[in-house]
Q: What sequence folds into this?
């Protein structure tokens, strides 16, 4: 039996924090995240769907105590849901839940599936290649997640719509950063891409969109407001002045040929507040 679900990483805590994410070259099959607002996790994805038997071989390296930071290893998101998802043609996934993690996540040094090496990384934990930053609090756990791509070098934000019996979505998201800044967020786009999004929508999965954060230094942009089809899904208090605000919009829908058309618009408007 095979297990799986769509891959994503979510970093959303009850308060802003700084955490070091070790760099790795396994973005396609592994990502860091947080669940339930307080548990750090590592999410692994099989190289392809349709595997009837899966043998995972994972090696992690960490600083400090000899005590293992691995708390549990489970099917993702749960065994029952995993069976349902894989029957819908999705990929097998495994989640590792970490414990006693304070300033730095364990580093993935080897990932093998069915004796095939998917990726490997040097065992040393080199702080020069790791990134530590503040993750702002937000009130949107059901619809927004911070994430990384490119082995942790690029930070993104993923939006998830409620499960609705519609195939037409007009997104609007507003972000803020402290102080006066140049462009810090990309255009809003369909996630993970047009073709895969159409497949997920037609299978009843919720629509998703995402942005890339630009020129990130010590703190990720804060989600101020998320609006879908004219309804505000969540909002947060803004930063005091001086601050910079950016608004991004995106329109996506599925036509009768089961494809996602190019967005009608997607762009960035920036308000500088001094």
A:
């Amino acid at each position: 039996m095979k297990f799986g679900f769509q891959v994503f990483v979510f970093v959303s805590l009850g308060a802003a924090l700084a955490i070091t994410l070790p760099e790795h070259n396994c973005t396609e099959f592994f990502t860091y995240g947080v669940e339930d607002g307080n548990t750090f996790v590592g999410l692994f994805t099989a190289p392809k769907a349709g595997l009837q038997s899966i043998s995972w071989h994972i090696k992690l390296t960490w600083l400090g105590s000899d005590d293992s930071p691995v708390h549990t290893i489970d099917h993702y998101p749960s065994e029952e849901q995993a069976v349902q998802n894989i029957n819908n043609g999705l990929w097998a996934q495994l989640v590792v839940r970490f414990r006693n993690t304070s300033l730095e996540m364990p580093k993935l040094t080897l990932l093998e599936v069915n004796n095939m090496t998917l990726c490997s990384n040097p065992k040393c934990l080199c702080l020069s290649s790791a990134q530590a930053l503040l993750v702002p609090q937000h009130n949107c756990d059901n619809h927004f997640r911070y994430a990384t791509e490119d082995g942790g070098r690029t930070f993104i934000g993923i939006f998830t719509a409620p499960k609705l019996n519609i195939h037409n979505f007009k997104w609007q998201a507003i972000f803020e950063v402290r102080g006066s800044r140049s462009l810090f967020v990309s255009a809003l786009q369909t996630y993970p891409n047009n073709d895969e999004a159409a497949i997920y929508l037609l299978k009843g999965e919720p629509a998703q969109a995402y942005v890339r954060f630009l020129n990130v230094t010590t703190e990720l942009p804060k989600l101020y407001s998320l609006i879908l089809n004219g309804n505000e899904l969540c909002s947060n208090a803004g930063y005091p002045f001086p601050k910079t605000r950016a608004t991004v919009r995106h329109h996506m829908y599925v036509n009768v040929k089961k494809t996602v058309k190019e967005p009608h618009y997607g762009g960035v408007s920036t308000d500088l507040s001094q």
Summary: The first helix runs from residue 79 to 87. The chain has two domains: 1-135, 136-274. Residues 1-17, 124-131, 258-274 have pLDDT under 50 and may be disordered.
